[in-house]
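WARN no homologs supplied; continuing
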Amino acid sequence: MIGKIEPKPIFDSNTATSTVSSLTSKSAGFQSILEERLEVSRPLERMMLEFLSRTIETFLSINPSEEDAHFLTSLLSLNISVPSSQKNNQSFSTNSQPVEEASKNLQENQDFEHIVGKASRKYDVDPVLIKAVIETESSGNPHAVSPAGAQGLMQLMPRTASELGVDNPFDPAQNIMAGTQYLRQLLDRYQGDLRLTLAAYNWGMGNLEKRPEALPKETQRYIMKVENHYRAFLKTARNSAVI
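OK structure emitted
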């Protein structure tokens, strides 16, 4: 996770304050006017999500390096947007593609598995997605620290960890629970769109929403890596079930 910058509000606070003040003087029609204005603003959110989704897809679909080329077919098969009612069931496509070996740190550590399962149930997030993010962020190392200062298994930035109530980011239970809670918040914000969720998790909501055209190569590769690890963990789980 690179960082977290708060997205710009849809309405300017000064303008909103003056507007509310003027409308309050006409209290009889205030509620209906406010509801009408809020209704007008809702399509903007859908347009924004569509724009962000198309921007991410464009970055992941053109001018690939040789290193990234083998990921693109599977990435294009992912769903871009899903209705809010379906967001809890959204998952990565699992069609056959080359996969890397998943980290033994996560495969063999039953404590992590237990925490991941608990976080998954509490926040209604796919446990395989949680493990894929952990593997991509820290390779299953609870003591990992990035050059940017992100900490622990899910590489929480100090400010984000603090906002999520984490006292010790190197405690696997606190880190995984908080990281999964943050994933849930992002999934809700982007209506279940996994690519946008992962881009925001890595690059920050503010960065993504203010300047999506500047999506860094690191974040592009991050999305690819999470998808690849997701498929690897899923394949391992299926093989174990067969045995």
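The chain has one domain: 44-242.
OK
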